[in-house]
Design a protein that fits this description.
heterodimer, A: two-stranded antiparallel sheet, 2 strands, B: 501 residues, mainly alpha, two-stranded antiparallel sheet
Chain lengths: 496, 501
């Protein structure tokens, strides 16, 4: 598993321009975010202009990674060495972060223009910048401390973003989130302390060499796992997720559900494949929780009264799909074919879900913004008045349901194949039942939207581009599904 | 030369039409109409080109890699082109009809957008070169027909939509499971494979049978085989062009076509017979045929009667497939086309009666032949064809199916055919009798439920001509069955190809 995460030595020294690109990727979001706090952009074009250098730097790193398979930077500061690595997986996640972040940022000016002006609205910009920088750092980091810093930055910025909307409900949910994310960090930190105290290593690659399985490793893995599962809203630690999204601003929700919870999951998988490479029960425990998550999340979404709760609860169920894959990624006696398929399916599902969920939050936000209604019943009859927003919602939901031609479907195909090969029939059933449950709650909303008898609502025209950004994200999930070959080849790169 | 662009552009034509229609404003009626018709004509031309290539023994193939060993393959083989031809010709007719039918109603943009998507998926199903591609378009079809079924937005329509999704999405999941199982164990899912699955017979007999049951079970929902037919009569709340499309071209046929592909191009006929699955399928088909006809007799309204008739008629295709031998195959394939033509005619006419005269129930149809002679003539041709009377196309099918049954030494099938024809006559002839030989409002007795003068002719021309045209073709397909490119001729070509392999 170590090589899959790119935690090996690279013989290839990065070029000087790569250093600059790396610096741009990590620092520019922060810089532009701070700039935007001082001069809040009112239109889309300044935001677009700011996104360009960051995206270009990301693409430059992509080209570099394609050539070298694995990039590795290393610095020594007074005896402490810090290293970053960029392999196929981390560059994919980095690009995903950047493009999703750009979409969320582009969406924001229109939103702020239409909704009532808020005192704290300008502080949204540096927070978005912080979250993107922190996420980029999380994909790149190779030691426990940097990971901790990235997670902490990300978590605190996310809490602040959620508090910004200033409503009482948002404050309540935000404070609860703050409390839980701090508890999660604390558990993680305890795990780190245990590891450092016992093996004296922070560096993941170094740790992998000296680490031996035993009670200490289990203890550390359990502590870190619990903390990260709390941050990633893995079932049954998902209770804080829906209230947080119910009152948050749309781009914040898009970023949070699309990327922030995924980062904790990424770290969790990485640490466990390091600390518990051959454990039988731990990944199975996660998988069972995942099965429950699929059913439970689907049921809550099915019973949901408000659209945002529906979308947020669906995240719980979709994370369940990822949890179910754990026994195919970590553990003894997994056939190489199953492991390779599960590895590809896992990340494809994660990326497809990130794109689709962000698109769905935006579409839901557009519907709510345009009508002023938040409940499913209140949104009845939107099909005639807001066809485009509804279409975006539909396209995004195809990915969530895992129907073709979306990334969700291709991922589900890969995962099902892996599960059939390794004869995990319970997991197969969970995935298939999940499809039906997802369809049930998605079409419950559509049924309302097709009603023709609904009263005419207050109608607020949206800013230009707000639907289009969401549509692009939703269609990107389709393209990802049909051309899955290219990203997946990157994932398997560096296998030599 | 390999013309990869042909199948791709044929699908892209309707996909693009859908995208353009979605971006047009709701009131751009004229532009939308032209785009619809233009796309339909382009598609027919492209399919005609593909037919030409198949005649020359050259299949146009388009493919690209999705992931690992899974490719997205479009392949214009004889069987696929046959279904593609049916869907593209009937799409044009149905589009013309729908334009007339929906004139002045709301949400036409949404309707025509999803209508085009629906046809694009049907064409994709026809041309799919492997199960994975087939699955992509099959699910696309499910999703794109949902907005059409619930188009009117009434409570009843929304309920029908819910039932439709329950059936089809569950079937989709079962199908997906079957396909993944098959692919995981054999690595095989291409329709063009020469080897077939025969190699696995020795070790995996039970597994192969199980997978067959999953796949055919998944397809049987769309093909509306008893007891998986519940969604079809409920979906009758949809507008008439949708019913016509669902029944004659898209959904029901997609299911039947899937069964064809599984038996002919994936398992192979010999293997299917060896596994003994064809006999089971034949029994299921016969039960469906009889059950559908019996239920049809009990219906008092026109559209539900036609719906149960579809349930019965589509299973003729399945029955023909499950008879081992070339004649059964020819009958099945020809019926795929014949039934589409005849059923679309019947639904067009039912829609015309409902729009022009407000007729929904069968006992309101007295004397309609005098008021609307052309529509009633078209209806009569369709009905006679369904019963299987010469010279309409339906006769050819039943003839070939009968011969196939005798050759396969399954004499009970002949009895089923005879019984079914009798039942068909019992539920269609009274309608024909009412149309022509009963005295009704046209003769001064009583009034029509809701009469509207829609056009200078007996009804609006956009409604009338498609119905007359399809009725004419179903007559011609029977009369001129011996000519090249007739449905029978093409079915024979496909069957010969299958059996000579």
């Amino acid at each position: 598993m170590m090589w899959r995460f790119g935690l090996v030595e690279s013989t290839f020294a990065p070029m000087l321009t790569s250093h600059w690109a790396l610096a741009a990727v990590l620092c520019l979001p922060l810089l532009f975010g701070a700039l935007a706090a001082i001069f809040p952009p009112k239109r889309m074009w300044p935001v677009a202009l700011a996104c360009v250098p960051i995206l270009v730097a990301g693409l430059y790193l992509l080209i570099d990674t394609l050539q070298a398979d694995l990039l590795r930077w290393q610095w020594e500061f007074s005896g402490v060495s810090i290293a970053f690595r960029l392999n196929g997986l981390s560059i994919l996640l980095l690009l995903l972060t950047q493009w999703l972040g750009a979409a969320a940022a582009l969406y924001t000016p229109g939103l702020l223009r239409i909704s009532e002006p808020e005192r704290f609205a300008r502080w949204l910009w540096p927070l978005i910048g912080t979250v993107i920088s922190a996420l980029s750092l999380a994909w790149l980091a190779t030691d426990l401390l940097t990971l901790y810093i990235a997670l902490e930055m990300m978590g605190l910025a996310a809490v602040a973003m959620l508090l910004l909307s200033g409503k009482v409900a948002a404050l309540q949910a935000g404070m609860r989130y703050l409390l839980l994310t701090l508890v999660g960090s604390l558990a993680y930190l305890l795990g780190v302390a245990l590891v450092v105290g016992y093996w004296g290593q922070l560096d993941l690659a170094g740790l992998a060499q000296v680490m031996e399985p035993g009670p200490v490793a289990w203890m550390a893995a359990a502590l870190m796992g619990a903390g990260l599962a709390l941050k990633a809203a893995l079932f049954p630690l998902h209770g804080w997720l829906s209230p947080v999204h119910a009152s948050a601003w749309t781009p914040v929700s898009a970023l949070h559900a699309g990327l922030v919870v995924k980062a904790s999951l990424f770290v969790l998988l990485q640490l466990w494949s390091l600390l518990l490479p051959d454990t039988f029960w731990a990944p199975r425990l996660i998988a069972w929780m995942g099965m429950l998550a699929i059913v439970w999340g689907g049921l809550i979404a099915w019973r949901a009264e408000s659209l945002k709760t529906l979308v947020a609860s669906s995240t719980v169920a979709q994370l369940g799909y990822l949890m179910v894959v754990f026994p195919l990624l970590i553990g003894p006696d997994i056939s190489p074919l199953a492991r390779a398929l599960a590895w590809e399916g896992f990340w494809l599902q994660l990326m497809g879900h990130a794109l689709a969920k962000a698109a769905m939050f935006m579409a839901a936000g557009n519907l709510i913004l345009a009508t002023g209604e938040t409940t499913l019943k209140g949104l009845a009859g939107t099909s005639r008045r807001l066809p485009l927003s509804l279409l975006v919602f539909g396209v995004a939901s195809v990915t969530l349901m895992g129907l073709p031609p979306s990334a969700g479907f291709t991922a589900k195909w890969l995962l099902l194949h892996a599960m059939v090969v390794s004869q995990q029939w319970l997991a197969v059933a969970a995935l298939l039942v999940g499809t039906l449950l997802t369809a049930a709650y998605i079409f419950r909303f559509f049924r309302y939207s097709f009603m023709e008898t609904a009263p005419r609502q207050r109608y607020q025209p949206l800013a230009p581009g707000m639907d289009m950004i969401a549509l692009c994200l939703a269609l990107a999930a389709f393209v990802l599904g049909l051309l899955a070959h290219f990203p997946l080849e990157l994932l398997q790169g560096g296998s030599a | 030369m390999n013309a990869a662009w042909l199948p791709l552009t044929a699908i892209a034509a309707s996909l693009l039409a859908a995208v353009i229609i979605f971006t047009l404003p709701e009131d751009a009626r004229r532009l939308r109409t032209s785009i619809n018709l233009l796309a339909a004509v382009i598609k027919i031309t492209l399919v005609a080109l593909m037919v030409g290539r198949v005649v020359q023994g050259d299949e146009a193939i388009f493919s690209f890699q999705i992931v690992g060993n899974i490719d997205f393959v479009l392949r214009a083989d004889a069987l696929g082109v046959m279904f593609a031809g049916l869907s593209s010709v009937l799409w044009l007719c149905t589009t013309v009809y729908a334009i007339g039918y929906l004139e002045g109603t709301a949400n036409r943009k949404r309707f025509f957008g999803f209508f085009s998507l629906c046809v694009a998926s049907t064409l994709g199903i026809a041309l799919a070169g492997n199960l994975f591609t087939f699955l992509i378009f099959y699910e696309m079809l499910t999703l794109s027909t949902y907005p059409l079924v619930v188009h009117s937005g009434t409570d009843k329509a929304l309920k029908a939509g819910r039932v439709y999704l329950r059936y089809t999405l569950t079937a989709g999941v079962v199908l997906l499971f079957g396909v993944v199982l098959l692919y995981s164990f054999t690595g095989e899912h291409s329709f063009a494979s020469e080897r077939g699955l025969g190699d696995y017979l020795g070790d995996h007999r039970a597994l192969l049978t199980f997978i067959f049951a999953l796949l055919v079970g998944g397809f049987a929902v769309k093909a509306a085989m008893v007891p998986l037919h519940g969604w079809l009569p409920r979906a009758m709340v949809a507008p008439a062009p949708v019913s016509a499309l669902l029944h004659a071209v898209a959904v029901v046929k997609a299911g039947a076509f899937g069964i064809l592909r599984i038996i002919y191009d994936l398992y192979g006929i010999e293997l299917s017979v060896e596994l003994g699955v064809t006999t089971a399928l034949a029994v299921a088909a016969c039960i469906t045929i009889i059950y559908g006809s019996l239920r049809a007799i009990a219906q008092q309204e026109l559209k539900p009667r036609l719906a149960f008739s579809t349930i019965s008629q589509v299973s003729y295709i399945v029955l023909g497939v499950s008879l081992f031998g070339p004649f059964g195959t020819i009958g099945a394939l020809a019926h795929l086309l014949h039934q589409g033509l005849m059923k679309v005619t019947l639904f067009f006419c039912a829609g015309i009666y409902a729009e022009e005269l407000g007729i929904h129930c069968i006992d309101e149809m007295n004397g309609a032949g005098k008021r609307m002679p052309l529509t009633s003539l078209a209806f009569t041709i369709g009905a006679l064809g369904m019963i299987g009377l010469p010279p309409v196309a339906g006769f050819i099918t039943k003839w070939y199916l009968g011969i196939g049954a005798i050759q396969a030494e399954m004499y009970w099938v002949v009895a089923v055919l005879v019984a079914s024809s009798t039942l068909n006559a019992i539920y269609f002839l009274p309608i024909v009798h009412r149309l022509w030989f009963r005295v009704g409002p046209a003769h001064g007795h009583g009034t029509w439920p809701n009469e509207q003068r829609l056009g200078r002719l007996e009804t609006h021309g956009w409604l009338l001509w498609p119905a007359v045209f399809t009725a004419f073709i179903s007559l011609a397909a029977g009369l001129l069955a011996g000519l090249p490119f007739s449905p029978l001729d093409w079915a024979t070509r496909v069957a010969v190809g299958e059996y000579l392999q």
